[in-house]
Structures are given as structure tokens and as C-alpha cells.
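User: My collaborator sent over this chain with a note saying "see what the structure looks like." That's all I know about it. Can you take a look?
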Amino acid sequence: MVGSRGLQVDYIAANYGQYLRAVTVNLYMTTVAFVVGMTVGFFLGWLRTIRSVPVKKVIRDYTALADASSRSPFVRSGMLALTVAWTGVKYLVRRIGDAYVEIIRGTPLFVQILFAWSILVVNFPGLFTNPSSVAFTAGLVALTANTAGYQAEIFRAGLQTVHSGQVEAARALGFSRLGAMRHVILPQALRLIVPPLTNEYIGLFKASTLVFILGVQTEITFVANKNAFAGHVFEIFAIVTGIFLLITVVLAKVVQALESRFRIPGLGIQQTRSERHRARPAEVP
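Assistant: Without extra context I'll predict from the sequence alone. Here is the result:
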């Protein structure tokens, strides 16, 4: 690829520092977007696991119970209206969450970045002092919205992995819905969703390079593209490739160690080959 001139290692040794400083911008954007998106994604995923009772069934059951009640018809009608309204709200919120996830997963991140940038430029022209801050904010908003949609699906799958019988047992013991989520569901679900969440972080970190199209001048891809016009193209992108590989491989190895350390045997994660071998009874000669 580099031709007869060879790869100039001296240039890499002298200039890798500026790309390490530039990648911290990508790490900052990725981490902030991931943490905020995790909060949004958890609540969206939780809402999407709630199954609302059909309105006809609510009315039928409530009418059957109301016939044996001593309350006045006015009070019974008001309570029925509140119950139906609450059921409708839960159904509407769940459908909004479903629509949000489908929109995010069904459109390219590149389009979402340009869409966020156009909204900020058109609707908030005086909010930012310079174009670079607009680009940075638009990229951060788009990354957050994107990872929130994907994390919502990850949380939904993880929460639904925990058997409903455990939730019912927790409620029978007196736990509230929040208490059952905190003490029963989350401790199990979080262990299962650590690998997909890490994959989402790694994917978001690599996708953060797309914000260079908006003109985030301190971002690593923008810096590399600008310096490439002055020569040393292969050396520059060899540095960028090495930096991304170093970060993503280290993250993957750390998560593999955590997964092996905190996994729940028999729940969602299969035994390793060595563990199956150790668990096999000794053969009788």
C-alpha cells in the first residue's frame, strides 16, 4: 500500500500524541451519549415490557366487581373512567416507545446526525456562538438518541429474560413494582446485558467518527483528514487504526473477564467448554 517509499515509522513515533489527544473527544462524546442514552433506554425498555390489559376486559371485570360493591354509581363510574384512562395511557406510552425504537433502528446514524444538526441550525440560530459548538452539540444529541433506541431494545430483552414467576413471587412477598425491579429483576438482567451493552458502546465509539462531516475540528477523523492533505496518508491512518483497535480490543477483553466473573450459571450464558469438561463425572475403568 505504501509503495516503494516504505512506511515512515519515525513520523508515527513523532505524531501519534496529537491523535491520542483527538480521540479523547470521541471518547467523551461516546461516554456522555452512552450514559444519557442508558437512562433513557432503560425506561423505554421497561415501558415496552409492560403489557396493558384490553379495555373490554377491564370494563367487564370492573363491572362484575362493581355489582357486588356498596358504593354509589357515580363513584363507581368515576373509578372505572380512571382505570380505563390509566390503561389507555400505558398503551399509548408503550406504542410511542415502540415507534421511537423502530425509527432509530430503521434509519442510518448519518441521516440522524444531519437531521439533528439541521434542527439546531434552523430552530436555534442564536443559541450557539460558533459553528463548531453547533456541530459538537448536534453530534452529541444524535449519538444519544441513537444509542437510546438500541439500548431500549437491549434492556427490553434483558428484562424479559427474567421469568415472570419471579416477579409474581416478589409482588406476593410485598415488594412494590419498583422494589421487584430493583431487588429481583435488575440484578439478574444486568448480568445478561453487559455483553450487548459493551458491544453497543464499542459500536457507538466507532460511529462517533461520523461527526467529522459536521466540522467537529477536534475529533480524530477530522484531524486525520486535515493532516492527510499534507502527506503521510498511510502513516496517519495507520495511527488512527491502531488507536481504535487498542481501545476496542481492551474493552472487549475487560468485558469478557467481567462476564465470566459475574455470570449466573444456567441463565442465558452457556457453560464454557472447560467447565463442562470439569463437570463431567470421571469414567470408571
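A starting point for your reply to your collaborator: The longest helix spans residues 9-49.
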